[in-house]
Structures are given as C-alpha cells and as structure tokens.
Amino acid sequence: MTEAIQVGRIETTAATEAARPRVAVLVPCYNEEAAIGKVVADFRASLPNAEIFVYDNNSTDRTVEVAKAAGARVALEPRQGKGNVVRRMFADIEADVYVLVDGDDTYDAKVAPDLVRKLIDEKLDMVNGARVTDIQAAYRPGHRFGNMMLTGMVRVLFGDLIGDMLSGYRVFSRRFVKSFPSIAGGFGIETEMTVHALQLQMPVSEVSTAYKDRPPGSASKLRTFRDGWVILMLIIKLMKEERPLAFFGIIASTLMLLALAIAAPVFADYARTGLVPRIPSAVLATGIALLSFLSLTCGLVLDTVTRGRWEVKRLTYLNFAAPRSRAGGERL
C-alpha cells in the first residue's frame, strides 16, 4: 500500500513537471561584474523553477566568474553587440517562455512571475515591461526624448500597442522567439522585436515596471546620439522592407511635387506665349517625374514581395503552439 502511494506521488510529480511551462531567463551581458550576481540571484528567487542563462559578450572584467558563482548557465558570444547576443540566445535555448532582461540590475525581478503569468494566461506572444521611474540618473532626459521620438515613429508606422519600444525587459512565447528573423547587431534589437510583433499582428501587451539606477561600479553602454542614430536608420530600413509601398510612395510623392514645382513656370510660359523657352527646366521636370513613377513602381512590386515574406513568417510562427497553461496553484 505504501509503495502504491509512493508510486502515485511520483506519477503526480512527473505530471506536474510535464504541465509546468519551461521558463528561461536570458541575460545578455557586457562588463556587468558589479550587477550580474544580484540579477541572477533576484531572478532565481523570483522564478525558482526557471533556468537562468547569461551570455557574455567579450567582457574584460569578472562578469563570467560572478555569473557562474551565482548559479547561472554561462555561454560566450564573440560577435560584439547586443543584437548578436540575443540572436544567439534565441537560437540556442529551448523553452516555452523566455524572459529577456539586461544584466545591469535596473529592472525589477519581482514582477517577472506576473509578466510570465500574463503571457501564459492571456496566450500572448510578448509582454513588454514599460519603464517607470522618477530617478533622473536612471533614465536621462536625452534617453527619454529619444525613446519618445523613436517609439512614436514606430507607433505611426506599425501600430500603437507599445509605449516603451526600447525597454530591455520583455517576456516572449516560444513561437515569437523561433519565428524571429533578427538582423540587428546592436541596441536596435529592441526596435526589431517590437516591429516583428506588430507587423505579424501578434497578441502583445505592456505592463508598467519599476526602473532604477545602476549599482555603483556599473556603467551604461548606451550612447544617446550614436545609438539613437543607429535605431533611426534601422526604423527606416525596416519601413523599406516591411512597408515598401509607403516608403517608396513617400519618395514618389516628394519627387512628383518637385517636378511640378519646376514645371510650373514652363507651363505658365507655354500658356501665355505658346512657346517653351525653358527647355532645360522642362527636361529636368520630365526626368524627375519619370523617377517618381519608377519609385512608385518599385513600391508596388516590393509590396507584393513583402506580402509573400509576411505569409512565410506567419506560417513559421503558426508552426508553434501558444504558451501552455500552468498547472493550477503551482509556482512558476
């Protein structure tokens, strides 16, 4: 009888383990010796059943040693840039739910279970942790303005479901991670992830989370103008690739307006005298008008190509099941 009870408990435990979603905490790192130990410890306490992965990106300090001592599984990515690290993590790690967080101890690990629970219970593909703070040193005015401007551009171009596009604290489903064709190499990875979710019309949500200053000894890798310019160029590139008709339509409209402005005096002279004395202007206006039509044609053709790419990405996304429900009452 006792053996039967023990066997039943073992089977129940096995069934519970099978029902529990596999959660992986992904921490890309570069020179975060001062913070990484606490980040690993905090997320281990917040998500006791999760595996914590730290991928080091050529750190010159003791980041690797500290992360290993804290109990994280550590790997190396030699290609410099956060985008390269995240792409490697998404390719290497198998899980049902992925928690992506920076290794600088600026995000609140205590809300991680709530973010994971929201993703699973509402069958979402991305939950974004929108940063909220009153600490000026944690979120400098230049960064605030740049984030507002760049996020505003993405909201206009791709959808307005995300209010803090550059947050480094996100939770993803497996089908998001395994259908994400990343191309960004640096900090533009957050922009690319946001556009990927919005362009494929994935179910997403955003939750306000506390954001704090870095601990002593930890320095930010962000450069306001350099990284802002990189992200701006990435947004333009993504618009060209994901919204080519709008992109080339803007160019076509601009060229046509320029052609009309140059041609206006030519038409005025012709209407008054019946002659075309400004032949160079007429030729220039005709050439610019032809470029306008050519740009519009490129947009129409590429829009068809983009539609095919969108369908392929959507089918890849649908190959994976939605996040699994948790067993009742268990801890994540």
From TrEMBL:
A Gene Ontology molecular function term of the record: transferase activity
Transmembrane residue ranges: 245-267, 279-305
InterPro entries for this protein: Glyco_trans_2-like, Glycosyltransferase_2, Nucleotide-diphossugar_trans
Coiled coil location: none
Keywords on record: Membrane, Transferase, Transmembrane, Transmembrane helix
Glycosyltransferase 2-like domain location: 25-177
PANTHER family: RFBJ PROTEIN (PTHR48090:SF7), UNDECAPRENYL-PHOSPHATE 4-DEOXY-4-FORMAMIDO-L-ARABINOSE TRANSFERASE-RELATED (PTHR48090)
Protein name: Glycosyl transferase
Organism this protein belongs to: Roseiterribacter gracilis
